[in-house]
């Protein structure tokens, strides 16, 4: 079974600064997907960024980028130029594709507060 | 188009009552997932449908939990004889397919169930 660990329950960052959220995972699979989801207060979860394990290049989406270290089973999220709207819970998630179900396995989340 | 919708948004039940939670996925999405999110935790997988077929129900915590998607669109999660430990937010997600870029899961706003 896969497990996802987010070791930072809460973090804060000043507006316009950069912050990195940590995620590690445990799997024996070689082919899989990793995701960061954002869950703003009282709003629904949305996808921030995704990474396919077979791709060596780190994914980027505007101010969001990841540092994917496959051998270390590490998948951190960097948010640059933090904005007040980035305040949310951030969940790291793992997916093993293949026959049958391809559910997401989530970490416990990191609560990020952006301070004006 | 419209996103994933869920109803009701809030449900209060007395212990022992039966409840039914509804999910309307994005039109044309083949895959549908149910997750349970306890307070302060990440979502945990309950069950998965591909069209009308329930391909994975390994996450359902007991035989009091039942899900269906009879016409491959709307899904209902039913909980019989509710217990206090069933109190959580129930999230529904849908995706276009299981393949490649189309496996992104889009989440609904959730139903917050409180069992008294």
Please characterize this protein's 3D structure.
The complex is a heterodimer of chains A (116) and B (116). Chain A has strands spanning 3-5, 10-14, 19-21, 24-26, 33-39, 46-52, 60-61, 64-69, 74-79, 88-95, 104-106, 110-115. Chain A has 116 residues and is mainly beta. In chain A, strands 2, 5, 6, 10, 11 and 12 form a 6-stranded mixed β-sheet that branches. In chain A, strands 3-9-8-7 form a 4-stranded antiparallel β-sheet, with no helix packed on it. Chain A has a two-stranded antiparallel ribbon with strand order 1-4. The radius of gyration of chain A is 14 Å and the shape is globular. The mean pLDDT of chain A is 93. With 116 residues, chain B is an all-beta fold. Helices cover 0% and strands 47% of the residues of chain B. Chain B contains no helices and 11 strands. Chain B has strands spanning 5-7, 10-13, 19-24, 31-37, 44-50, 53-56, 65-68, 75-79, 88-95, 106-107, 111-115. In chain B, the strands form 2 sheets. In chain B, strands 2, 4, 5, 6, 9, 10 and 11 form a 7-stranded mixed β-sheet that branches. In chain B, strands 1-3-8-7 form a 4-stranded antiparallel β-sheet, with no helix packed on it. The termini of chain B are far apart. Chains A and B meet through β6, β10 and β11 of A and β4, β5 and β10 of B.
What is Rg of chain A? Answer: 14 Å
Indicate the percent of residues in helices of chain A: under 10%
Terminal residue distance of chain A = 41 Å
Helix content of chain B: under 10%
From the structure provided, what is the oligomeric state, counting identical versus distinct chains? heterodimer
Biggest sheet character of chain A: 6 strands, mixed
SS element count, helices of chain A: 0
Tally of DSSP β-strands of chain B = 11
What is the H/E string of chain A? EEEEEEEEEEEE
Shape of chain A: globular
Q: What sequence of helices (H) and strands (E) makes up the elements of chain B?
A: EEEEEEEEEEE
Biggest beta sheet attributes of chain B = 7 strands, mixed
Note the beta-strand portion of chain A. Answer: over 45%
What's the shape of chain B? globular
- The averaged pLDDT of chain A comes out at 93
């Amino acid at each position: 079974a896969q497990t996802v660990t987010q070791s930072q329950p809460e973090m804060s960052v000043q507006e316009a600064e950069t912050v990195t959220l940590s995620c590690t995972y445990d799997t024996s699979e070689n082919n899989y997907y990793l995701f960061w989801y954002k869950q703003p207060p009282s709003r629904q979860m949305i996808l921030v960024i995704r990474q396919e394990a077979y791709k060596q290049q780190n994914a980027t989406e505007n101010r969001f980028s990841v540092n994917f270290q496959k051998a270390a089973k590490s998948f951190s999220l960097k948010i640059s130029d933090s904005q007040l709207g980035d305040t949310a819970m951030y969940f790291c998630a793992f997916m093993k594709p293949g026959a049958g179900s391809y559910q997401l396995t989530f970490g416990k989340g990191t609560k990020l507060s952006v301070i004006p | 188009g419209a996103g994933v919708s869920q109803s009701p948004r809030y449900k209060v039940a007395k212990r022992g009552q039966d409840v039914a939670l509804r999910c309307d996925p994005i039109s044309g999405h083949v895959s549908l997932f149910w997750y349970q999110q306890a307070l302060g935790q990440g979502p945990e997988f309950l069950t998965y449908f591909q069209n009308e077929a329930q391909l994975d129900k390994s996450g359902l915590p007991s035989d009091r939990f039942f899900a269906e998607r009879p016409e491959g669109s709307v899904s209902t999660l039913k909980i019989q004889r509710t217990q206090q430990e069933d109190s959580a937010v129930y999230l529904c997600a849908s995706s276009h397919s299981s393949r490649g870029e189309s496996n992104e899961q889009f989440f609904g706003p959730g139903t917050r169930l409180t069992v008294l």
